[in-house]
Automatic annotation (TrEMBL):
Species of provenance: Methanoregula formicica (strain DSM 22288 / NBRC 105244 / SMSP)
Example of a GO cellular component annotation carried by this entry: ATP-binding cassette (ABC) transporter complex
SMART domains per record: AAA
Membrane topology, record value: Peripheral membrane protein
Any GO BP annotation: cobalt ion transport
ABC transporter domain sequence ranges: 4-238
Protein name stated in the entry: ABC transporter ATP-binding protein
Alphabetized SUPFAM superfamilies for the sequence: P-loop containing nucleoside triphosphate hydrolases (SSF52540)
């Protein structure tokens, strides 16, 4: 049984604009899944079906094998937490601490449990020092961490991040990568994230779905997706710079193994140039 599964999911906005067309998607336990595609591909619309914000026009969405209903939607929204692209859509309390406490409070938890969850969530995302700050006075990256902490405090089993690196500086992106990578092993969470920045994907994804115009046009591992440059170009994406560079070196006669992450590329280049046995 998969944590999330969609079967022939279709969604049409009012006005007859088709946003999703026969989407078949699976999220296994303890996985890191990237959904990539250019702006308007349907990534955000798909994500809003995962906890019942949107209702399918046709097809189905199954959470732990069960369809979303009025009776179970509260439990599903505890199970699947979504962080939207714009953190201002989720932040509204007078202080960071109060904002992060909003979700656990609405779950009806006792004050001691709420306090523990809030401070653990702040610690996990590295913003304990911001607990008493006014959220709307924070930087974009800090606001994004507050929004993530608010969802983490609900202790979901699935964390959905819509364009999580949008608006972050390079250090913020590095920190976010480390955070995403820690979630499956350290906290038992499945992470699903969207991006049109393909350079981010090899560092933080086990499996990739490629979307274009409301359809899934390809899916597979990093090795399977990023050896299809023509397909990626057809959906207005590019191959990440590391495999592109190594492919060019191979074509110029350098005996280098293909790699997709910085660490693997470093190892491959050191071996190619006799610096590593």
């Amino acid at each position: 049984m998969h944590l999330i599964e969609t079967r022939d999911l279709c969604y049409t906005y009012p006005g007859k604009v088709t946003a999703l067309n026969n989407i078949n998607f699976i999220a296994p336990r303890n996985s890191r899944i990237a959904v990539i595609g250019s702006n308007g591909a349907g990534k955000s619309t798909l994500f809003k079906h995962f906890n019942g914000i949107f209702k399918a026009t046709s097809g189905s969405v199954l959470i732990r094998g069960e369809p979303i209903t009025k009776q179970n939607i509260k439990e599903i929204r505890k199970f699947v937490g979504i962080v939207f692209q714009n953190p201002d859509d989720q932040i509204f309390s007078p202080t960071v601490e109060q904002d992060v406490a909003f979700g656990p409070t609405n779950l009806g938890l006792d004050p001691e449990t709420i306090h523990h969850r809030v401070h653990e969530a702040l610690r996990v995302v590295g913003i304990e020092h911001l607990a008493h700050r006014v959220p709307h006075h924070l930087s974009g990256g800090e606001k994004k961490r507050v929004a993530i902490a608010g969802v983490i405090a609900m202790e979901p089993e699935v964390l959905v991040l819509d364009e999580p690196n949008a608006g972050l500086d390079p250090r913020g992106v590095t920190d976010l990568n480390a955070f995403i990578n820690s979630l499956p092993k350290k906290y038992g969470m499945t992470v699903i994230f969207s991006t049109h920045d393909v350079g981010l994907v090899p560092e933080v994804a086990d499996y990739i779905y490629v979307m274009d115009k409301g359809r899934i046009v390809a899916q597979g591992t990093t090795d399977e997706i990023f050896v299809q440059p023509d397909m990626l170009r057809s959906v207005r994406l590019d191959v990440p710079i590391i495999p592109r560079l190594l492919k060019s070196l191979k074509e110029h006669g350098v005996d280098v193994s293909m790699a997709y992450t910085y660490a693997d590329a470093e190892e491959s280049l050191l071996k190619a140039f006799g610096k590593r046995s």
